[in-house]
Amino acid sequence: MIDTHSHLFEDEFSDDLDQCISRCKSQGVNKIVLVGFSESTNNKAMELSRKYNIFYPTAGMHPCEADDGWQKKVMILQDFLKANKVYAIGECGLDYHYGKDNIENQKKLFKAQIELAILYDLPLIVHMRDATMDTYEILSKYKGMLRGVMHCYSGSLEMANEFIKLGFYISLGGPVTFKNAKESKRVATNIPIDRLLVETDCPYLAPGIYRGKRNESSYVVYVASEIAKLREMSYEDVEKITSLNSEKLFGI
Length: 252
What we know:
The structure is a single chain. By secondary structure, the chain is an alpha/beta fold. It contains nine helices and eight strands. The chain is globular and about 45 Å long.
């Protein structure tokens, strides 16, 4: 099993990271995509990946980094990519949840990272929150040049299929286990299984059994279990197929 989106470098794990990794291994989670989203977290992801071979680091700039210094941040990111091996660009994207004051900078920062993904032939990890149509409009302009994943997808089934047509995978996390997550469950049930990934986004968005508590990468098994139930498949088949999908996308 592969957790395709984890932030195990966060302070929440500073006291028990080794135990978290042990729990992953005991649950059969043997690969973790460690996702950077700022200059500091890109460095943290890289440092941990050098210490533990379970981690596969990425580097990107989250939309919350889209201030007036976004161009300098892109230059720093490109220098980082030249000096380090990463497995994807991102997470990056658009997030209008807390306001739209910096929309233009968000779009520019997003487009710059799309172009880096194309330049370095790397997949793109897309963060999208309350910005579905703008995200789709931007990505559609690069159709055929780009591959990636819509991380912790929370949109409709119809739009999921449109993103798939652009060459993207759909990744589901803890929210698919929530009782009231009707649309996420519809997505999990109906998208082509060869375009489906699983993730935790830990320490955020723990599955229902741990809702409101710290999430961790070993909990990705609850996501896979829920998908298996929804699709009327065995857990082993979901584990195998999503892992193969992950390996194909990230080259791990």
